[in-house]
Automatic annotation (TrEMBL):
Organism field: Mycolicibacter nonchromogenicus (Mycobacterium nonchromogenicum)
Keyword set, alphabetical order: Cell inner membrane, Cell membrane, Membrane, Transport
InterPro entries: NrtA/CpmA_ABC-bd_dom, TAT_signal
GO cellular component terms, semicolon-separated: plasma membrane
Cellular localisation: Cell inner membrane
Protein name: ABC transporter substrate-binding protein
SUPFAM superfamilies the record matches: Periplasmic binding protein-like II
Taxonomy, superkingdom: Bacteria
């Protein structure tokens, strides 16, 4: 296998370029297996500048991490999922918020010891389109940007396109007559200018990039992804097996702090927007961050208003049914890269191997139990996904 082919397994060609990555998948695997955990220094946190990272960031802003637990410097900001993933598996950062499908990919394609501790949030993403796009059928013959191949954004977008008679394609020009839509990977920070100059017909991504497009009047939100998959997890709280083995108390403290920050976010979202936006942690202006955290009922009908799909949720518990359904959906998703690792997976068994929920269960108990987050005491739920 060539170096380029190995790299595409992690990122896809476009994402590898966005990362400036020098590692192929084999190099990453060797780094992941040879890396030794830092058993003494502060834990290093990495994030993308999106509202999905809010619990990790607010925990830092509100000083919820015990002194010396994490680096005294601000968490490390990355501009693309590819660069954050590379830094994580090579040990440059220890705790991150990461796309759930990407966590599956990194664990089973790399064997890098990726472990999900809990959910960072639910919902919080949308399909934003250019002003002239009225119906989904208008996307036929256009390019739509996604942040990463293995993302809930790509998965749900493809479900949405197929439900409306459109076919997603990769590495081939879209055809209006053929009702195809070309998907391309793009860093979230590049999506807004690309939509502004009409080089793409739309993008699907986490906020506040959807809010920014609305505020700047260069695009509009067409569909909140939570209107397709109710309260889906986009990003999870992630660490590695070696960090858990060497520093279980530190991981418990991090989880406690993040769960505490989720409660704060649910209590006062306006205050959180002021603490995070305007360059404090997120480069986007406070009004955009505040809009993303407090969307009112949008000015167009929701398919399932009782789901509150526009509401970015902060609930920490990782439901096994979601992981099962997610792995099944990954098998139905078109990507530009190697997907053979999926052939080895039993969707019913992935959750038990990928997720270590002991820390979040303890954190929930310390913060008022499941009821404090509106969760059932049984900590179970049934997935609700609209595919047609």
């Amino acid at each position: 296998m060539t170096t380029l082919s190995r790299r595409r397994l992690l990122t896809g060609a476009a994402a590898a370029a966005a990362a400036g990555g020098v590692f192929g998948i084999g190099d990453l695997a060797r780094s992941a297996t040879s890396r030794a955990a830092d058993t003494a220094g502060p834990l290093r946190i990495g994030y993308l500048p999106i509202t999905d990272a809010a619990p990790l960031l607010l925990a830092h802003s509100a000083a919820l991490y015990p002194a010396g637990l994490v680096s005294s410097a601000k968490p490390v900001l990355f501009r693309s999922w590819a660069s954050l993933g590379e830094a994580f598996v090579t040990g440059k950062v220890d705790v991150v918020h990461l796309l759930m499908p990407m966590a599956v990919q990194l664990r089973y394609a790399l064997g890098g010891g990726v472990r999900v501790l809990g959910w960072n949030h639910t919902n919080g993403s949308a399909l934003t389109v250019a002003p002239h796009i009225k119906d989904l059928s208008d996307l036929a013959g256009t390019q739509v940007a996604i942040p990463f191949w293995w993302s809930i954004h790509n998965i749900v977008l493809q479900q949405l396109l197929r439900a409306h008679g459109l076919r997603p394609v990769v590495r081939r020009s879209a055809s209006r007559s053929g009702r195809t839509v070309e998907l391309i990977v793009m860093s979230p920070s590049d999506m807004v200018p690309a939509l502004a100059n009409r080089s793409i017909g739309g993008y699907v991504v986490a906020d506040p990039f959807n809010a920014v497009a609305q505020i700047k009047k260069i695009g509009r939100i067409h569909t909140f992804l939570g209107d397709v998959w109710r309260d889906h997890a986009c990003c999870a709280l992630i660490t590695r097996d070696d960090v858990i083995a060497q520093r279980p108390n530190a991981i418990q403290q991090v989880t406690d702090a993040v769960v505490g920050a989720q409660l704060l976010l649910n209590t006062d979202r306006v205050a959180a927007a002021k603490a995070l936006g305007g360059g404090h942690y997120l480069p986007q202006p406070v009004p955009a961050v505040q809009l993303a955290l407090t969307y009112p009922d949008p000015p167009y009908p929701l398919a399932h208003p009782d789901w509150q799909p526009q509401r970015l949720g902060f609930t920490p518990f990782p439901f096994a049914g979601f992981t099962h359904r997610l792995v099944e959906a990954m098998g139905e998703t078109v990507i530009d890269g190697d997907r053979r690792f999926l052939d080895r997976l039993d969707p019913a068994r992935v959750h038990a191997d990928l997720v270590d929920d002991q820390f979040v269960r303890s954190a929930l108990a310390a913060h008022g139990g499941p009821a404090a987050f509106g969760l059932a005491a049984s900590l179970t739920r049934k997935e609700q996904v609209i595919t047609a």
